[in-house]
C-alpha cells in the first residue's frame, strides 16, 4: 500500500480495553507513569481458575499474566442480543463489538447516520471460552457443535457479527495470521479504503484467555519469562508473558476526513505485509531477512525518508531469539542514524497475541499525537548480543519529550509462522483554525433511557471539568456523531462555562433543559469532531456457570430443564429463558411436547403448551397436572407474551388455526410500552365455543380479568380479526370503550356468504395451505379423503408422527373456525375506529375458491363501524405478510405505528 500527501489514511478514532486500563486514555496515562500491568496471581485466583494444586507446586510453574477485568460483563440489551445468546458468545467477540461501538463514538460517527460504507477488519484468538467453559457444560450433539455454539465462538463470525449488530455494509473480514493479525488487518483495511470498497474502516483485534488466572510452566529456552517480567531489549531479557486485551482504530481517507471535519490523530503513509517463507531455522522461528524486507517495502511505498522515522514501536517480545533478530532487521532496513527512539508496549501489558499489533499502533499514534515517548519499563542495559546495534537507538527509562518534533514513526508486528507487517505513520498536520463563530449553540444528549441519560449528563460535566474544548466542536460532535435515542435533553448556551453550569444545575435537580433548546441554526463551518463521553454500556454478567451434577432423584423442574436444554441444544438454558427467543417454533414445540409427555407421563397437550414461554411456566403447568389440579377453567388460554414498560395492554386474538406462535415473532418488532397478551384456542372444550360469538364471549371475560375497564386495544390476524370485532361489540354493549381495533388482513363478513363447505373441499384447501405454511411442500396430486392422507402426500420424510398428529389437530381447528365464520354476520355497528392492515399481494386463489370465499374489498369493514376505517398496506400476501421474516419486520413497524396512533400510521 502506498499513499501520497493527499491520499493518506487518517486515524480518526481509537478505543480499547487493556490490562489495568479500561480505555485508551487510561492506557496512555499508565504508559507515561511507567506502570506494568503484568502481575502475580493470588492463590485464590489460581484455585478459582481451576489450576490444580499439584501444578501450582511445580517448581517450573509461574503464576504471572496481564489480565483483563470484567470479561464476563456485556451490555446485551444495548445491542439487541438475547441473554441466552449472549451467554453462548465468546467474550472476545462481545468485547470486540463493544469496542467497535466505542471507537465509532470516539471518532464522532454514528454508523446509522454515516453517508457511506463502513468496513470492519479484525482478529480474535482461539476461543478458550468454547474449550474451557461452553464445551465443559454443553450436552453437545454427536455430530458436532450446535449452530448457536458455532456462531458464538468461531473466529469467522467476529467481524460479521459486528457488521450485523452495528449495521455496517462495507467488507467484514476476520484476519488470522497469529501475532501479526491485527496489524495485517490494518494493512488490508487501508487497501480497502484506497480501493473505495469502504469509506470508513473499523480495525482491531482481541485476545482474551479463559480462564485468565492460570500462569504458565517456564521451560529453559522457551518463549515465556522465568520471572514474570518482559524485559524487551534488556540484557536480562529471557521471555514474554501472556496478556489479554482489545484495541480498535477508526480509519478514513485523509481527504475525506478533512472535508468531513474529523479530528486526525495521525496519518498512515505506507504499509506492507510479507512472509518469511522457508528461509529460517524452523516454522515458528523469526527471519531477519523477512523482517528487513517488509520494513523496507513499507518505507519505500510510504514516501517517508528513513531518517524521518523518529520512533519505532517494535514487535519486541523480550525473548532471547526474537529481540536480536528484530533489532538487526530494523538496523538493516532503517540504517544507523542516531537518535531514533525504540520501544515495545509488551513490557507493560504482556503479549496480547492477535491484539498486539493494533495495540502497538495505538501507542504509536499517541506518541505522534502527544509528542511524548513513554518509558521502556524493565530496560536497564542493552542485550549483549545486539549492544552495537542498540547504540544507535534511544530507549528511554523515563517518559521524555523529544528535542525535535517527531515527524514520523513506524510499528512492526511479526506473526508466529512468518507473516510480517509494518506500518509507517506521520504526525497529523494541525491546521490553523479560526475562532468559533459567535452566538449560541444547541447541545443535545441522547440515551436509550432516562437512567443512561443521567449518566451521560454526569460524564459530560466531569469531562468538561478536565478538558478544554471549543463549544462549536462539542455541539457539532453531539449533533452529528451520536446515534439518536428515545431519552433526550438539550441546552442552548453561549459558552462552555454556561453549559457546565447548566449541567451542574440539572444534576442538582434544578432547571429544565428542554425549555432552552430552541434557537437559530448553529454555525458549524469551522467545527470538528472531538472525543467526548459516549453512551454508557451497562455490563451485566453473561456467563455459563458450572452446573451442579445431576442426581438420580432430580425433581420435575430439573427433568424438564434438562430435556428442554438437550432438545434445543442450549445446555446453559435457565428456567426463566424465553424458549421462543432461543429458537423454539410451532413445529419444534410439537416434538418437545411429545418428549415431555413421554418423560413425565403427564397429559401435556400442544394447545396447553402453546403460550408457555419458559421452563418455569412449563413446570408450573406440569405440576398442576401432576397434582390433579389442572386448570378446569380458561385462564390458561390467556398468556402474557411480554411485559410492558408502561401501563396498558394489547390483546392478540389467534387466527383460524388457533396458534399464537405467529404473534411471538411479530412481538419482537413492536414497542415495549404495552404488555402483550395472547389468547389461545379452547381446544379441549371446542364444542362449547363453536361460534364466533361464543369465542368472543369467552375471550372478553378473560380480557376483563386482566383489564377490568377500558379503553381496550384488541388485535386479530385473519379469522382473529372477526373474533376481535365481536369482542369489541360485546365490550361496547357493556358500556366500555375500545380505542383500537386492529385487524391484520381480515376478510369482511361479506366474503363468507357462500354456502357451507364440504370436508373434501377443506381437505383440498388444506393441502394448498400447507404449501403456504411450509414453502417447498409439494401439493397433493390427487384428492384425499382424510387429513392423514393429505399429510402423507405433503410429508417430505422429515415430519415425525407427533408433527403429523398436531397438524391433523390444526386442520380440525382451522376447519371448524372457518365454518363458524360462514355462520356469522355482525349485528352491531361499532363506535370504535377499525384499522385494517392489509396485504399488498393477492391471497392464494386456490384456497379462496375451494373454500367458496368471495374476493371482496377489505374496505367493506367500513359498513360495520360508526367510526373511521383506516387501511394500511403491508408487503406480502395473506400468509407471507406474517411468516416471511422480512415482511413480518415491516408488518411489525406498521402495527407498532397503529398501536401508538402516530401521524402517518393511518
List key phrases describing it.
about 900 residues, alpha/beta, 7-stranded mixed beta sheet, disordered C terminus
Q: In whole angstroms, how far apart are the ends?
A: 54 Å
Task: Report the radius of gyration as a whole number of Å.
Answer: 33 Å
The proportion of strand residues reads: 15-25%
- Helix percentage: 25-40%
Q: Main β-sheet, in a few words? A: 11 strands, mixed
What general form does the structure show?
A: elongated
Average residue pLDDT? 87
What's the number of helices? 32
- Counted beta strands: 26
Reading side by side through the largest sheet, how are the strands ordered? Answer: 7-6-8-10-1-11-16-15-12-13-14
Q: State the low-pLDDT regions, or none.
A: 548-554, 628-632, 902-906
Q: What class would the helix/strand composition place it in?
A: alpha/beta
SSE layout:
Blueprint: E1 9-17, H1 24-32, E2 39-40, H2 43-48, H3 53-56, E3 61-62, E4 64-65, E5 73-74, H4 83-88, H5 91-107, E6 118-124, H6 128-137, H7 147-153, H8 157-166, E7 172-174, H9 181-194, E8 200-207, E9 216-217, E10 245-253, H10 254-259, E11 266-275, H11 288-302, E12 309-313, H12 322-334, E13 340-343, H13 346-349, H14 356-370, H15 387-390, E14 393-394, E15 408-414, E16 419-427, E17 441-447, H16 450-466, H17 471-480, E18 487-493, H18 496-507, E19 540-541, H19 556-568, H20 579-582, H21 586-600, H22 606-609, H23 615-626, E20 638-642, E21 649-653, H24 661-667, E22 675-679, H25 692-706, E23 712-717, H26 719-733, E24 738-744, H27 759-773, H28 787-794, H29 801-822, E25 834-839, H30 845-850, E26 869-874, H31 880-883, H32 885-900
Parallel strand pairs: 6-7, 6-8, 12-13, 12-15, 13-14, 21-22, 21-23, 23-24, 24-25, 25-26
Antiparallel strand pairs: 1-10, 1-11, 2-4, 3-9, 5-19, 8-10, 11-16, 15-16, 17-18, 20-22
Helix pairs in contact: 5-8, 9-14, 11-12, 16-18, 19-21, 19-23, 25-26, 27-28
